[in-house]
Request: fold
Amino acid sequence: EGWLAEHMLILKVTSPEGDVKYLTGAFPSACGKTNLAMLIPTLEGWRVETIGDDIAWMKFGSDGRLYAVNPEAGFFGVAPGTGYETNPNAMAAAERNTIFTNCAKTDGGDVWWEGMSDPPAHAIDWKGNTWNPDSDTPAAHPNARFTVPADQTPSIAEEWEDPKGVPIDAFLFGGRRSTVVPLVREAFDWEHGTFLGATMASEKTAAAAGTVGQLRFDPMAMLPFCGYHMGDYFGHWLKVGAKEGAQLPRIFFVNWFRKNPQTGTFLWPGFGENSRVLAWVFRRCQGKAEAEETPVGVIPTADGIDLSGLEIPAEDFEAVRNVDLAALRQELPQVREHLEKFGDGLPAELWQQFEALESRLGATAA
Reply:
């Protein structure tokens, strides 16, 4: 049977009633994984604690549930974009005993990066050159990093070093999609969830000719890390799902990055407000949250997510809640091309899932 190793965070979520659920989440780089791992909820009464931010080792317990262990001693995050407004827990953790790479150095001997705070009047950039706010190049490398002992994180859960691990209630997948993909959807079943993970993608952001509308696939956020054929990896997921007596986690797909096509602004505020999505996932695991079925999965009803205290226009929430089916039909050839790259190693079940999606969308095979 062995371990199911994942490029995943592990969260402990506690409801206002004191009930606890454990969630994992796999996200490619620059898709908010560390921010989610250290999230401070804005939704009153909810609590989120960190067990891990990058790796989950999983195997079945005697009760048939999947248990996840964080094998790492610390957290490793992208520095640019991390600040006291976006991830105060990470900033508090990194105040001491922390290694930084490719950041700028201030005149006071401290580090600085874009998004951390107001820029210093003068610094030495990551290349060793003099830098000021009028410079044409960034002070820190876009992939500058910090690594910090996990137990320095204010949100760390008491179970984070438990060798038994924690029983997982839900998997989250997600990429960076400004169009098409809704805020959150639940897979129909384990096989469909495996398909969602196998076809997860982000939109290319490089300003290069011919990349508009092109997708960068990173199946299960594992493409850079899997040391064997990804088709075999998908097959392992399907084998896990077929285990007799297994009490499998639910699988969800999230997207914090939908944008208004006219203004280019984000429709969903993200960061701490993502606790509202976690609360819906939590209630779905309890069998309490209302939902409606779409061709791509199960989404919240119009009033299914608690928006109390959040100023978001109704039309923006409706846009981010729903999937753009017409645009998804146009993406199907890219999804097919992605799956074809795995050749004969792709499990037949995933081709069947793709064909079922085509059928539900009323699309013809490419």
